[in-house]
Amino acid sequence: MIRNSSPAAPRFLTVVDVAELLKVAREDVMDLLGRGELRAIRVGTSGQWRIEIDELTAYVDAQYEEARRALLWREANLASIGDLDDARRGRATRIAPRL
After folding, report:
1. 43 by DSSP, 3-state: which?
2. Three-state DSSP class for residue 97
3. d(CA 81, CA 87)
4. Where are the domains of the chain?
5. Which pLDDT value is given to residue 75?
């Protein structure tokens, strides 16, 4: 997780900084900005993007939550398929593990 825990740590990151942290291409970060998935501001006369470290942290946290929910959904669907198969064969219903 990315946290701004040190007083010397920068508050804002460049697009290149974010790309390096996430291990993706600069264009991928620009796509995130363009779609509004990652919030940023434009500063300076050239209008360069700056991403606040807290915004990057919120984006990463949201991605973890999305992955967690997708896993739960897949597990629920797999459990349902097994339950239907067991019911068809006249067996007791299994209880799926909870995360």
Report:
1. strand
2. coil
3. 10
4. 12-89
5. 80
CA distance 67 to 52: 23
Please check whether residue 68 is in contact with residue 50, taking contact to mean a CB–CB distance below 8 angstroms.
Answer: no
Q: Report angle CA 14, 20, 25 to the nearest 5 degrees.
A: 95
* Beta-bridge partner residues of 43: 48
Q: Which tokens in the block code for residue 91? A: 């067996």
Q: Give the architecture-level CATH label for domain 12-89.
A: Orthogonal Bundle (1.10)
What SS3 state is found at 48? strand
Judge whether 29 and 38 are in contact, CB under 8 Å. yes
Residue-wise pLDDT tens digits, 54-96? 999 999 999 999 999 998 888 877 766 556 556 566 665 555 5
